[in-house]
Design brief:
Length: 934
């Protein structure tokens, strides 16, 4: 293995005569975690130079990222810029098959060790997590794990009592609707913190506790008669029993107003962890400055709070965590002498050495079994073990006898009582406001994903705090903002929101605003539907302009929804991409989405929907800039959901109704875009919008995949993308390089043909593939001597033709192939010089083989006539066979004589789809039959 500072250094070595490597790994620079432009510019430059270098034609470049994709439950996508770079390169992969690979790694040692094995796999995209190699596959979006009970009554998350996480359900909760006592407050929950106690209840290991959910944040919807300092609409957080629900009731003294800068998820993450740590260390542990503290599971919620409080109190803090979380403790200022594993009891001798043999004064424990005993032994004289766990409560008297000179105390936060809890919460908030403490990292889950969240917590995979979120229903009196709101898709959605969701206030934003074509008619139509629409001209990517726009939303109709449907196209092959062409697409799509995200953090949104594209996931050729911008949107949606904010990114397929972005597409463009499936009608698209909102996932692909067509073409010139193989169920397409014993490859079949027939066969192959690329119904539209440019080829369709021919022949071919050899005949001549030739049999032997086959067919015909007794019937069947052979090639008797000039519109055999799906071998079967070659 060799190391180079950058790709230029590698090229310099190649100039000096160093052999060309088979694989090269390029680590995307760390700027990928920050600036979008610099990351994409650098990635584009490196990739273009790599693909242009003919010396590297047989070397695959693996681009390594970290944090650019989420592949498992609870994962964030902090590398938004790197995610956009992956979208950019995904498009390049489709134009240059086999030249690039994308790998995202979690940076754990076992994942680095697994990297060489991953590079040996023939997968275009991979992720490495804890040493496991994962490949992406699309799957159908099933129903969400949980669904509310029928009817309009109150409900909450609970267990049906089976003792398993699968027994979680959303069950009726009539108590949440009972009349309020004078000192009670009814709160509409937006987020609720999950604690291990809740998981233990689900697993049936704390039978004395039955109600899940103890802390949350939300909006006041009703107050008791004695509550005078809170009003409907106030945002509050605190201790709320049974808060895994849309609505619950709490005591006024258990609630505090939210800080304006906090999200609901941040607020919901505060109460239990900080109160538990504070009560355990200050009230029960009597911690004093200068003492030492061991926090077990220090990367968990209470653990991270305890580390901060301990350091604030002047304690020397030690912590345990699993190996994959030790980096968190280092980021909070603990060094290796103060960190140990929470998976073994080795912390005991390790920390005894660090303390010079004395041990620690205080242990905040959540572990069980031998870890409790090891912790008791580690206590210094006068030491205290404060037990906050629920699974291994010991007898304090027995432990005092076994470990004299130290004490043990188990507790539950409720012991503190309402008054003390209120006082502690005030102290904690003062420390948070003053910067002495900070809120914890949050992992957000939609409440409907509760089973997955509980499993995630039970396996100890989380860092910080887990929060279940409950976005509010769409409020008819609120305002929904739609970017691109005067466009075709934006206008259709505006009508749908008015009719299906009852939205009465719409803010339609576009660059031209009221001057947009059809804007007045749209406003009038929405008015007839009962909705007031305001059309505003605004560049949403301009933060100051957007800030002014949001400030103008009336308080009586606050912003409750955002749909970002704006965008722009500037298609072109990857080699022709430039920073300017990237900017054209990034500004209205990615920049605007980021501005909307950051400037609406304080809004109580029911929806935050991003209109993305299927191209960002599948990697459409010719759309590297568009794929990059939409991949940014997909990652942003996942990042928001991880933070507990509402977000849904919809990777749309092609819509049937032409829009400002798609109205310019030609028949060939539409044919290429529609090969994976049929376009969406407006009615179908809006129905998928509704299903996506009801589903709750952060990223969905509403598209109409034609799996039957993909499956039929699985052995054809266009391979099934790896991402779709799980849905299609098709085998990996054969290539020219096959294992011994498999079916004869196209290249082999070409190689054994006589030269004259090989030339004709190659010409027909080129014409057939060219017709399929352009969406023609027959190869007759592609004359052998007619220039590719004259029949409609551009740089993108030329790349697609190159890919198909390269796949069929096994040759390395340049992207400019169709322009370097501008007619099918000239291109066939070029391929003829490149393809290997098999040792040919003697001409006499060829003739004998053909005659032998003709004689066998004649004998068989005689036999059939005798068996059937009806030569006319046999004649009819032979004519049917001839017609079928003609249909395969797209010819009829009337147009086969002048196939180089015939117009496709004159044929009666519309077989573009068959040509597009046919494999090279299918085409050769047709060619052989028509030309009489065996």
């Amino acid at each position: 293995m060799s190391w180079y500072a950058d790709p230029d250094a590698l090229r310099a070595e190649l100039e000096a005569g160093t052999p060309t490597p088979g694989d090269v790994v390029w680590c995307l620079p760390e700027t990928a975690g920050g600036d979008l432009r610099s990351t994409l510019y650098d990635t584009l430059g490196v990739a273009q130079e790599w693909l242009r270098d003919e010396r590297l034609a047989d070397t695959r470049l693996t681009v390594l990222t970290s944090g650019a994709v989420a592949v498992g439950a609870g994962e964030d996508v902090p590398g938004l810029a790197a995610a956009a770079a992956r979208g950019l390169l995904g498009s390049a992969q489709s134009e240059h098959p086999g030249r690039l690979r994308l790998v995202d790694i979690d940076r754990r040692p076992e994942s680095w060790r697994a990297l060489p094995a991953a590079l040996a796999l023939d997968e275009p995209q991979l992720a490495l997590r804890a040493g496991e190699v994962l490949a992406p596959r699309l799957a159908r979006a099933g129903e969400p794990p949980l669904a509310p009970p029928a009817g309009d009554g109150a409900w909450r998350l609970d267990t049906t009592g089976g003792g398993g996480i699968d027994d979680l359900a959303l069950l009726p909760a009539p108590a949440a609707e009972a009349p309020l006592a004078p000192d009670e407050v009814r709160v509409a929950i937006r987020a609720a913190g999950v604690n291990f106690r809740d998981v233990a209840i689900a697993l049936g290991i704390v039978p004395d506790q039955t109600v899940m959910g103890t802390e949350g944040a939300g909006v006041v919807v009703e107050t008791g008669s004695a509550v005078t300092d809170l009003a409907v609409g106030d945002r509050v957080f605190g201790l709320l029993a049974g808060c895994f629900a849309p609505v619950t009731v709490a005591q006024r003294r258990a609630l505090v107003r939210m800080r304006p800068e906090w999200t609901f998820a941040e607020a919901a993450s505060v109460p239990t962890v900080f109160l538990t740590a504070y009560y355990g260390l200050v009230d029960l542990g009597r911690a004093k400055a200068g003492e030492s503290l061991l926090v077990h599971a220090a990367a968990g919620g209470v653990g991270m709070a305890a580390v901060q409080i301990g350091r604030h109190l002047g304690l020397e803090v030690f912590g345990t965590a699993s190996a994959g979380k030790e980096h968190v403790l280092r980021s909070w200022g603990l060094d290796d002498e103060h960190i140990a594993s929470s998976r073994t009891t080795d912390f005991e001798p390790h920390f005894r050495v660090t303390t010079g043999g004395r041990g620690v004064d205080l242990v905040l424990n959540s572990l069980s079994g031998e870890f409790v005993d090891a912790s008791m032994r580690l206590l210094a004289p006068g030491g205290r073990l404060i037990e906050m766990g629920k699974t291994d409560i010991r007898d304090a008297v027995e432990l005092a006898e076994e470990y004299p000179g130290v004490s043990y105390r188990a507790f539950d936060l409720s012991e503190a009582g309402p008054e003390r809890i209120g006082a502690m919460l005030d102290e904690i908030l003062a420390l948070l406001d003053g910067g002495e403490l900070r809120t914890l990292p949050v992992t957000g889950w939609d409440l409907r994903e509760a089973p997955e969240a509980f499993r995630f917590i039970s396996r100890g995979r989380h860092i910080g705090k887990n929060v279940l979120t409950l976005p509010p229903p769409v409020d008819a009196d609120g305002t929904v903002l739609i970017t691109g709101g005067t466009g075709v898709l934006g206008g259709a959605l505006a009508r749908h929101l008015a009719t299906a969701y009852g939205v009465r206030h719409l803010l339609l934003v576009s660059r031209q605003g009221p001057a947009s074509q059809g804007a007045d008619e749209l406003v009038a139509e929405l008015g007839e539907l009962g909705a007031e629409a305001r059309v505003v001209a605004c560049d949403v990517a301009d933060r100051e302009a957007l800030r002014d726009l949001l400030a103008a939303v009336p308080a009586e109709h606050p912003l409750t929804g955002v749909v970002h449907a704006a965008g722009a196209l500037d298609d072109g092959v990857f080699d022709a991409m430039s920073p300017d062409r990237l900017d054209t697409v990034l500004r209205p799509k990615a920049d605007a989405a980021l501005a909307l995200h950051e400037l609406t953090l304080d809004a109580d949104l029911a929806m935050f929907v991003l209109y993305s594209s299927f191209s960002a996931t599948l990697g459409s050729p010719g759309q590297a800039n568009y794929a990059a911008a939409n991949a940014f949107l997909d990652a942003l949606a996942r990042h928001r959901r991880h933070r507990g904010l509402p977000a849904t990114s919809l990777g749309w397929g092609l819509w049937e109704q032409a829009s400002a972005m798609t109205g310019h597409l030609t028949g060939g463009d539409l044919a290429r875009a529609g090969r994976a499936g049929r376009s969406l009608t407006t009615e179908h698209g809006l129905a998928l919008f509704d299903r996506a909102l009801a589903h709750g996932a952060s990223h969905l692909l509403p598209t109409h995949l034609d799996l039957a067509a993909l499956r039929a073409g699985a052995d054809g010139a266009a391979a099934i993308p790896a991402l779709l193989r799980g849905l299609v169920g098709a085998p990996v397409r054969r290539t020219a390089e096959q294992a011994p014993g498999t079916r004869e490859s196209t290249a082999d079949r070409l190689a054994r043909l006589p030269e004259r027939e090989r030339r004709r066969a190659l010409t027909e192959l080129v014409r057939a593939y060219a017709a399929g690329v352009l969406g023609h119904s027959t190869p007759a539209a592609i004359g052998a001597e007619r220039p590719f440019r004259d029949v409609g080829f551009d740089s993108l369709t030329a790349v697609e033709l190159r890919n198909r021919l390269a796949s069929a022949t096994g040759l390395r071919l340049p992207a400019t192939l169709a322009f370097d050899h501008p007619t099918p005949g000239e291109l066939a001549e070029h391929l003829l010089t490149r393809l290997p030739v098999a040792p040919s049999a003697a001409p006499a032997q060829d003739v004998r083989d053909v005659l032998t086959q003709v004689e066998r067919l004649t004998e068989r015909l005689d036999s059939l006539i005798e068996e059937e007794g009806d030569p006319a019937l046999l004649g009819e069947r032979l004519q049917t066979l001839v017609r079928r052979l003609g249909a395969l090639g797209g010819r009829t008797a009337s147009n086969s004589k002048n196939d180089s000039t015939a117009d496709s519109s004159t044929t009666d055999s519309p077989v573009a789809e068959r040509i597009d799906r046919a494999s090279a071998d299918d085409l050769f079967d047709f060619i052989d039959n028509e030309l009489g070659v065996s």
